[in-house]
Design brief:
It is built from ten helices and four strands. The protein is α+β, with helices and mostly antiparallel strands. It folds into two domains: 138 residues, Gyrase A, domain 2 (2-Layer Sandwich), CATH 3.30.1360.170; 61 residues. A four-stranded antiparallel beta sheet has the order 1-2-4-3. The protein is elongated.
């Protein structure tokens, strides 16, 4: 493993929906399709702002984002608590997990130094490397046993899905997930809060940055941001 500290990574894989889709959803109750198409960009912006400012939330669900996120398991466990998403996570049964683990953050090291704990970073690294060595060496042993016909492929997979249990939650996992804009706003409201754990804040910041760069619904995003993501 590289000695360079590995960080959290968020990538926007795709999006569906625009400010106009939000407005059209709201206008469904009062306008036919032909009349919707004649509405100006200014009218779209006005109604999108009105909907968000007055907490009319269902139309913004017309916008959907799909993300790929690489993060430590302990961050993923918090991330998965947001149930209004559609996540898929890498499998320790069908894949051999990577040796990448989250390094001790600098602020934690500074706290350790205050109490005279000079070896926290070293002990953390050694403990995670030792756990991975046990995981990898046993997998190699059982993979060889499979090749020699001593066990079946199903038995090998069964061993692999249990052996991942020796790896701590600092090891990285990969998640692909979709949020509609309403659900994402709720996530950002909670996880951009300064009281949230810094690592999940970093996930939220990268999600927001990628969405703002994408620019598919700038009026909705800007208005939600102004409202503190309240919807």
């Amino acid at each position: 493993m590289s000695e360079e500290k590995k960080g959290i990574h968020v990538e926007l894989l795709g999006s569906f929906g625009t400010d106009r889709d939000i407005a059209n959803a709201a206008w469904t109750s009062s306008l036919d399709q032909q009349k919707k198409e004649k509405r100006s960009d200014d009218e779209v912006a006005r109604v999108v702002k009105y909907l968000i400012q007055n907490r009319h939330s269902s139309p913004i669900e017309q916008v959907v984002y799909r993300f790929y996120i690489s993060m430590p398991i302990f961050v993923s466990r918090q991330f998965m608590r947001h149930r209004m998403q559609s996540p898929n996570e890498m499998s320790g049964r069908y894949r051999t997990l990577s040796d990448e683990f989250f390094a001790v953050p600098d602020d934690i090291d500074a706290i350790a130094q205050k109490v005279g704990d000079r070896s926290l970073v070293k002990d953390w690294d050694e403990a995670n490397r030792k756990a991975y060595d046990l995981y990898q060496s046993r997998l190699e042993r059982y993979r060889q046993a499979e090749k020699e016909g001593l066990i079946s492929n199903d038995e090998y997979k069964r061993v692999r899905e249990i052996l991942r249990g020796v790896l701590g939650t600092a090891f990285y996992t990969k998640v692909t997930t979709t949020f509609n804009l309403r659900s994402m706003a709720n996530f950002l409201k909670l996880r951009l809060d300064p009281h949230a754990q810094p690592e999940i804040q970093e996930v939220a910041r990268q999600m927001l940055a990628s969405v703002e760069k994408n620019g598919n619904c700038p009026v909705a995003i800007a208005t939600l941001k102004e409202m503190g993501w309240q919807i």
